[in-house]
Amino acid sequence: xxxxxxxSSQLGVSEVIEKLKQAVINNQFGILHAFDxxxxxxxxxxxxxxxxxxxxx
Length: 57
Known about the structure:
By secondary structure, the protein is an alpha+beta fold. The chain has a domain at about 30-55. It has helices at about 15-25, 35-45, and strands at about 35, 55. The protein has a two-stranded antiparallel ribbon with strand order 1-2. The two termini are about 15 Å apart.
């Protein structure tokens, strides 16, 4: 069983992140870690063309 969940959206990345954070709170969960993969790779000199965020809930 995979714990990976992927959902497409017409909203912008910032809007999706805010909606996710609110949904987590509304369901009495918390975000343990949030990763901005594009930024992490940029800090290491690598380029990622698309946004990529990972949330550990």
